[in-house]
Design a protein that fits this description.
mainly alpha; 65% helix
Length: 365
C-alpha cells in the first residue's frame, strides 16, 4: 500500500526501507523502540505533507535523500532533548566564527571537542585562512590582496574549508553521542550484575534480623513474667481495726491471723495469668510460620534477580555498511583536501602512522 502511494515497485520500496533503517540505526533510538517503527513514522509524516511539497519518486536520488531526512527527523524525535540539540542543530558560520574566536570559552563540551578534532584535520594553509577571516576579521578581498590571488579563488577556498570543518564537527558530535550512550548502557549492565550478586546476602541478613527480633521479644516476655499469688491476704486485712477514741488509751487487742499456706511445687503452673499464656502461644506460632516463610521468600527473590539479569536489553546494532548517510571519515576529508590542492593522497595506513595511530573503520584509533 505504501509502495503504491509513492509510485514505487516492491523491490524499490524494500531498498528504500533498508536505507531508511540504516539512517535510524546511525542516529540511534531507545531500546524499546524498533527502527522499523521509526521508519513507519517517517512514511506517515511524508503522506501528511501536501502532494505539491512531496519529492517525486522519478528523481531517484533526491527522493531517497528526502525520505532519509524524514527518517532522521523521526529518530531524533524519539531521542532526548540533549541529544536532539547536539545532533539536530545546524552548524552555521556564526557558530563556527564564535568557536574559532574563543575556543576555550565554548560552554558546550561536545561542541568544543568536535571543534578541536576538526581543526586537527586541517592543514596549516586552511587554518591560516580560517583564522585570518574569523579571528583577525579580514575580508575576502583583503586576504586576496595579501596572497596576490583573485577574490573568487579565495572565496571558493574559504567555502570549501568551511564545508570540511562543518562536516568534521558533525561527524565528531555524532560519534561522541553514540559513545556516551554505549557507556551508559555498559554502566547499567555492570550495576545489574553487582545487584544480583549482593541481593541474596542482603535477603538472608534481613531474614536473620527478623528472626532475632522475634526471638528477642519472646525471650524478653518470658523473663519479665512473674507468678501472681492468689492466696496472699491483702495488707488492708492485716491492719488493726479502728476503735473509738476515749480519754483513756486502751491497748489494742490482738487479732488472730490465719496461717499462710505455702505454695507447692505442683501448683506453680496455676499461678500464671491468662495474658502471659496467650503471648507464649503467639510467639510459638510466629516461630513455626514466619521463619520458614522468610527463607522461602529469600530464595524466590534470589531466583527472580538472577532471571532478571538474563533479560537485559541487547546492545544497539551498528548501521549497515552498504549505506552510511551523513557519516564522514576523517581520512576521506584529508584525502579530498590534498587532492583539491593538487597533491597525492597518502594511503590510510600511512596517514594513520603519520599520526601515531592505527587505521580503523572510520578514521584512526
Amino acid at each position: 500500500m505504501l509502495a503504491s502511494a509513492f509510485g514505487l515497485s516492491r523491490p524499490e520500496f524494500d531498498d528504500l526501507v533498508k536505507t531508511m533503517m540504516a539512517v535510524v540505526r546511525k542516529v540511534g533510538c531507545p531500546a524499546h523502540v524498533h527502527p522499523l517503527e521509526v521508519v513507519h513514522d517517517a512514511f506517515i509524516k511524508a503522506l501528511d505533507k501536501p502532494i505539491s511539497k512531496r519529492r517525486s519518486s522519478t528523481d531517484r536520488e533526491k527522493f531517497i535523500g528526502w525520505m532519509c531526512e524524514l527518517a532522521r527527523y523521526a529518530a531524533l524525535t524519539n531521542r532526548g532533548s540533549k541529544h536532539r540539540k547536539l545532533l539536530g542543530e545546524e552548524l552555521t558560520d556564526a557558530n563556527i566564527a564564535a568557536a574559532l574566536s574563543t575556543p576555550a570559552h565554548v560552554p558546550d563540551v561536545g561542541m568544543r571537542k568536535a571543534l578541536e578534532e576538526a581543526l586537527a584535520l586541517l592543514d596549516a594553509k586552511d587554518l591560516a585562512l580560517l583564522y585570518a577571516h574569523y579571528v583577525e576579521d579580514k575580508t575576502v578581498q583583503e586576504i586576496a590582496d595579501e596572497q596576490n590571488r583573485r577574490w573568487s579563488t579565495v572565496d571558493s577556498r574559504l567555502r570549501r574549508v568551511r564545508r570540511l570543518l562543518r562536516a568534521a564537527m558533525q561527524s565528531t558530535i555524532i560519534a561522541f553521542v553514540l559513545f556516551v550512550a554505549k557507556n551508559a548502557r555498559a554502566q547499567g549492565a555492570r550495576l545489574a550484575r553487582h545487584v544480583s550478586r549482593l541481593l541474596p546476602h542482603a535477603t538472608h541478613a534481613a531474614c536473620a534480623m527478623t528472626v532475632a527480633v522475634v526471638c528477642g521479644i519472646v525471650a524478653h516476655g518470658n523473663s519479665t513474667a512473674t507468678p501472681v499469688r492468689q492466696d496472699i491476704p491483702s495488707l488492708v486485712a492485716l491492719a488493726p481495726p479502728e476503735t473509738a477514741t476515749t480519754n483513756a488509751m486502751a491497748p489494742p487487742l490482738p487479732q488472730e491471723v490465719a496461717p499462710v499456706k505455702p505454695i507447692g511445687l505442683d501448683e506453680l503452673g496455676e499461678q500464671w495469668s491468662a495474658s502471659t499464656m496467650k503471648s507464649t502461644k503467639f510467639a510459638l506460632c510466629l516461630q513455626t510460620t514466619v521463619v520458614p516463610f522468610g527463607f522461602l521468600l529469600a530464595s524466590a527473590m534470589t531466583a527472580g534477580a538472577c532471571a532478571g539479569t538474563d533479560r537485559q536489553t541487547p546492545p544497539p546494532q551498528e548501521p549497515e555498511e552498504e549505506y552510511d548517510p551523513g557519516g564522514y571519515d576523517p581520512y576521506d576529508l584529508a584525502c579530498q583536501s590534498e587532492t583539491a590542492r593538487g597533491n597525492d593522497c597518502l594511503s590510510k595506513e600511512e596517514w594513520c602512522a603519520k599520526r601515531g595511530m592505527r587505521p580503523a573503520r572510520r578514521g584512526c584509533k
